[in-house]
Amino acid sequence: ISCDYDMCDLIGFDDYIASELDYRTNYIKKDLERIVDYYGLSKRKKKKDDLIEDIVLFEKDTANTEKVYQRRKMWKYIEEIKKDKYLRQFLILD
């Protein structure tokens, strides 16, 4: 996709806001702390909004693309295991 500088900034900003809204709406603080731990970021004395900001900034950094992809893939696997009547008994996350 080619776009002028201002348009690319706007698209990037919209993507940032969408990610932030997704985390704020669909995740509890405990879920966010797990993501922060996975990425190796600090969660010490941080509120939910601070955790969200750290996660989104980490995920938007192209240097972290592989780590972000891996985390999302693993989280999908966890969700699939939770749906399986047999395997879910072996999944202990808490």
Average pLDDT, rounded to a whole number, is 88
Count the helices. How many?
4
The total beta strand count reads 0
Helix coverage percent: 55-70%
What's the alpha carbon Rg, rounded to whole Å? 16 Å
Q: Distance between the terminal alpha carbons, to the nearest Å?
A: 42 Å
Beta strand %: under 5%
Describe the main β-sheet briefly.
Answer: none
Helices and strands: which structural class?
mainly alpha
Question: Could you say which overall geometry the principal axes of the C-alpha atoms support?
Answer: globular
N-to-C SSE string, H for helix and E for strand: HHHH
- Catalogue the unreliable spans: none
Describe this protein's structure.
With 94 residues, this protein is mostly helical. Helix content is 69%, strand content 0%. It has four helices and no strands. Helix 1 (5-26) crosses helix 3 (48-60). The longest helix has 22 residues, at 5-26. The radius of gyration is 16 Å and the shape is globular.
Q: Strands, helices and their partners?
A:
Elements (H helix, E strand, L loop, with lengths): L4 H22 L2 H11 L8 H13 L4 H19 L11
Brief descriptors of the model:
about 90 residues; mainly alpha
Short description:
This protein is mostly helical and 94 residues long.
